[in-house]
Structures are given as C-alpha cells and as structure tokens.
Amino acid sequence: MRAVHENVGSRAGVFPHSTGALTMVTEAALQKITAVETPTRPLARAGTGGWIDRQGFTGFVFSRQPFDALALSLPAHDGSGLALARQVYHRTLARLISARVFYRQWACIVAGAALSFPAWWTPEHGVTLYPDLAVVVELALFVLLVVSLPWVLMRGVSSEALIAEMTGVARRCFLRDIPAETPDDLSDPWRHGWLTEDCRPLSAEISEADARFRLTSVRAWWWLPSAGCLAAGATNLLFGGSFALMFVGVVAGLKLLLDSNPTAARVVELEAAEAVEAAAFVEAGGTAWAEANETARVRQLNEAIRQNREPVVRLGMSTGLLAGRSDFFAPSPGLPVGLSREDLRTHLLVFGGTGAGKTSGVLRPVARQVAAWDGTGLVVFDGKGSLPREVSDLPGMRMVDPARVTISIVKGLAPDVLVDTLIDIVEPAHGQDPFWRNGAHALLRHSAVLAEAAGGLFWNLATVGAMAANASLRQQVLSSIGDARVAAEPMLASAVEYFQYDWKEMDERTRGGIATTAQTWISTLTAHADLLKWVRATPADDEISLEDALSGGRFGVLLPAYRYGRAGAVATALLKARLYGALKRRAESPAQNAAPVVLLIDEAQEVATREDAAMLSIGRSLGLSMIAATQTMEGVIEKLGDQVAARWLNSFGSVLALQGRSAETDRFVAGKLGVTWRPRIETAQGAAVRTAIVGQAVSGALAAARKQPSLVRHITPSALQRRAGHGVLEGTMRFLRGAANTERPQSSLGPAEIVRGAELATLLAEPDTALVVLNRARVPWRDVIRLQPTHTP
Description:
11-stranded mixed β-sheet, about 10% strand, two-stranded antiparallel sheet, 32 helices, rod-shaped, alpha/beta
C-alpha cells in the first residue's frame, strides 16, 4: 500500500526537516542497503602461506558479482534496521545468483556429456587418440576455464532484473516512504515489526535463512567438477575415449545426491516462516488489520507535516529498544523525541521517584523550551519544592511570591469552585466523617455565595470563613445585597434560605461542630503571615494579574512546602482554579490576542483536585496544555479517590516514566503502552523472521565463531544448511520427493504486552532514561529514551 502524502508549507521550529524529494530519506536509506562497501575478491588468509584458501576461492569466483563481501562471511550485525536490511539484501542476492549458478553448472555437466557421446559412438569405440596429449589439453582447458570463471562461465548470472527484484524486496520489507517536510523526529525510514510496505507478513518476502545464507562457497567449489566435465567433454570430442563420459556420470550422480536445489531449499524455508506468521496475521484481522497500522503511520506523518508551523518541545533521544521488540509505533535509535505544541494539548504526565530526574531531566528543560515559544503563556507550579525559582531567569517570567506580591485567591472563582477546591486539598472525600464534611461544605458554599454577591471588601476568603460563625456579619452582608437582588438570583436566594431556615433549625452543638470544621479548613491558609494577606485580599487588591498568561504571560508561583507547609498546596490549587476560570470565560468570548497556555506542575498530587479531571478532558478546546509530574499514581488516588483519580490519570494523552515508581504505577505505565499482535514462539522448527535473524547473530555457534577462530572450521556449509529453517536440508529432500511438511512450528498467537510492569526497573536502570508513550501527531509513539537534563549551578 503506497500512501499519498499531502504537501504543506515549511516551518521554523526545534526539529529541522527535509526539503528534498518525496522519498529523499527513503532513497538515501535504500542506497545504504544496496551499497557494496566491500567488494568480493580473492583473499589469502593468514596461515595459508599466501595461497588462496577455500573462502578466498569463493571470493575469486564471485568477484564480479554485485553483492557485498559480507555475504561470504559469518553473519555479524547489531540488529539495527540498516544492518538487518544489508544482511538480507546482499545474502539473498548472493543466494539468487547462486541459484542461477546451480543451473549453469548443470548446463556444463550436460554439455560435457553431450560432447562425450560422439566419441563413444565412433568406430574405435571410445579409444583415446594421443592419450598423453589429451591429458595435457584437458588440464589446460580445465585451468583456462577455472581461471576465467568470473569473466566467462559466471558471465551474465546476475542481471539488472535480479538486482531490481532484490531492491524491491529490501524496500518493501525494511523501508517506508518519508515525505518532504517531515520533522526530524519522524524522519525514520526503517520498518520495525513483521509487516511489509504492502501490508503482508514479512514471511511473504523473506525467511530468516536469507539473512545468514553462506552457501556461496559450496556453489563456487562445485565449479571445479562442473568445469572439469566441460573440459573432459571437449577433450573427448577432439581425442576420443571413454573416460569423459564416465567422469561426467560420476559428477552428475554426486551432484544429484549432495547438491540441493537452492530455489527448492528457499521455498521450504519460506514455508516454515509462513507457518509462524501466517496464522497470527489471519487471526489479527488480515490485510484490514495491517492496513490500519500502516494507515496510522501515514496519517501521523501527514498530521506532523500539517503541524510544521507549530513549535515543538524536545524530550530526549530514542534508543530503539521498543523497535527491537518489533513495535510498529517505535522509532529507530538516535532520533529526537518530542511533542509539538498541538500534541501537548492532550497533556503530558510524568512519573518518577525522588532523585529520578523529573525536574532536571524533564520539567526544567521543557519550561525553558516553552518559554522560547512566541505567543504561548506559561505558568509553573510546584506542590512542594521551588521549581518556579529555578526557572525565574526565563524571559518575561514573573514570580508570584506571597512574601513580595499580594494576589486575590478568589478572583474569578465561582463560590462552589472556591469551596470545592479548598476542600479537595484540605479534606479529601475519603477523609473526615461525611456528616461534618458535608455540613461544613454547605456552610462555606452558602457563605461564599453571599460574600461574592456583596462584593467589594466582603469578597475574600477571610470573610467567607468569618460568616460561618458570625451571624451579625451575615446580616451585614445581606443588608448590603438587598431583597430585590435576592429575589432575582436563585443561588443567592438559596443561600439566604439556608441561613434563615436550615442553619437555624440545627441544634447549637451541631452548628458549633460544623462551624469549627469550616474554620479549621480556612485556618490552614491563615497560619502564615504571607498567606494571610492573600486570604484577606479582594479582587481589587491584586498586584499581579495571573490572567495575563492567557495572552502569553509567564508566571512562576513560588509556594515552597518548607516555608508554607500544607497552606502552599491550598493556595496553589486556588490559583490554578482561578486560571481555569479565566480559560472558561475566554471560551465564551474569545479575545483577539488569545494565546495557548502551558500549565507545568511538579508534585501534582499535592494540588490535584476534582476540577482537574474535568478541565483536562476539555482543556484542548480551551487552549490548555498540562504537564504534571508526580511520584506514583497512589498519591493521586489518595488525594482524589479511585474514580476521580482514574479520570485524572486517563486524561493524559502522553506519559513519561522515570526510575523510582511503585509496582502499581509500573503496571499503569505498561498498560498505557498497550499490547500488539505478534506471533510469540514457544516451540517451533521455524521462527519469526526478524526474531531469528537477530537471534542467530547474537547467540549460538555463529556468534561464538566471530570471537573464537577455532570454531570457524566447524561452521561448514552443511551445518548452515542443516540449521536453515531448523532442518531445511531434510525439508528440501521431502519437497523434492513431493512429501508434505508435517513439522509445523508451535507458537502463541494473539495480543502480546510490549512491556511488562515488572521489567520497568530493569529497562530504566540507566540514569536519565525514561519510558515514553507519546501522542505524537495523534498517533502513539513509544520508546525508552535518553533525557538531556539541565542542572542548576
């Protein structure tokens, strides 16, 4: 399936992009695959006294063929996309050429037999004329044929059509089209997984044996008896005799017995590979399922190109670990990994224990990059620490510090939002006895309604708390409102009715308990002199307007826990709610200079509220992007309860996990990665193509021989052939006899976890690494990445 990519304009951003032809990146990768970096040539190995050894003779025979010398040596590669593709391309090309040589050698044997027959039927009945001269001529012809092998007998065994065939195989199996203007983080031409470009299993094109074929030496040495047959036949035609016919017969018999048909062997290998992958492909949904995965990647590229004018935030560099697990949506190693401003609107959740690098590896670098974006607001909160102070040097950053600035914590807040936010922080739903909690909630909510309605000096949190226990103050507030307004506003009328009837009908002890609970909550904020100013501040007392973030302003809210304790978290949550209110109001009457806002929160579990869960789900449409960091998901659950916490956690489209999480958090992150359809080998004569190709290069006799020269002599062509497809030689003989292949691989089919929660600690053992599941251009993008931390002086 070849996708048609839309063409859009260029952009300037953090990720540079290609500007050439549609498939420039792909064509460059294809050239690397097909490049003959080391031409085949005759070599004399050390210890042979300068004589060309068996492998050197193979290099001589194939010295004019268009494949790399790697096809003549033991498989050696690192499992990368390029290395795999080069192994498959050059070894399979050598294999196809060897198949043609196989038939050409038979042609020489048949030609030798044909040349021998005329002399056999002469009146002398096979008597050799001039036998000494005949021997000399035969040897001379044999040497001449062998010496001229690359130019004469091997001439034309390769062709442009054969090279084009293998180039097409390499492209379909290992490459994808990368259109012009693709950002660098997605300019990844390499395919990972077991599907081809045209949405078929990899086994529809290649087998694992194609990546380790090394029987070119067998084919080269069979030239000696084959050329001998031709030389003997020609000599026999000139001098007569019976030796040539007998020699040709012996060679033909041995070839039939010992030399397998390369094409038939490859058919058996592909059949074994098909048994492993075909069932998984069919059960997954066949072509429709494969096209869905391929279409997702194509649309990701198109969407990223559409976003080219959007700035991006860079998180780190890919390692390719999940690509090594055949994940369709994982990048190759060495690519930048990040999110565009548009991607960030689906929010980013960061997990990491103390000292794991949340601040230095993610939050601080992200804050500095976002601050460089034009027309984007930034507000930095920290539920415990001093992250805002660490980024105070950013351009245009204004610090909201209670020790220096007065700000109203009720401005722009609806009374119910004010009270709900306060209670979410100081008294979670699963905390106190519900009776006292609900009673105090109602008291404060109705008091806040009255205070907001009165406005002026009454609209602050201090007045709301005071009215809970001060009847005369409530009466003073009511007098300032007036009966006409009470009658016109239902919420106000409900608050008046509450105090006139519900509150008075409670016994004094109950009222005292409820009022005490409400006062205790308010006193959380009034315990520090700096925050007492904020509690008493009315909207008119604002010395700084947090709403400026909606037009591109940058703010750091400095409320460190070591100074303000729990009160800092309460004030942070209220200011966050104030920002939410401003975003909602902007949606009702959009301003011309409206800017998207990035809200960056460290230790987010300390300031998480139920309103967060609601805002995250609609934040994209309001221009809000949240980057929240927390240690574990248990902290969020403890604060919000199971149901609200689930909504909060699941509202983040992208997740980044560092070291130091809990087992429950690890399972959550692994669940975010999800599962993918692939065959999982349990017991089999065959193996999934990519798994087997990588496996044979890193373990077993072939891998050991790379470091242990004493083993090389035992890695014979016959041993390789026996290994191919776990019994390909026997399978080939069955194939030639027309017998059915009854040895079928055993594999587990179905969705398989990409990562298990229990292995995250091992995957992230290297410091400054993280597992990411990103919503990149509306499509998953996942890998273990290396962060690029920035440390404070």
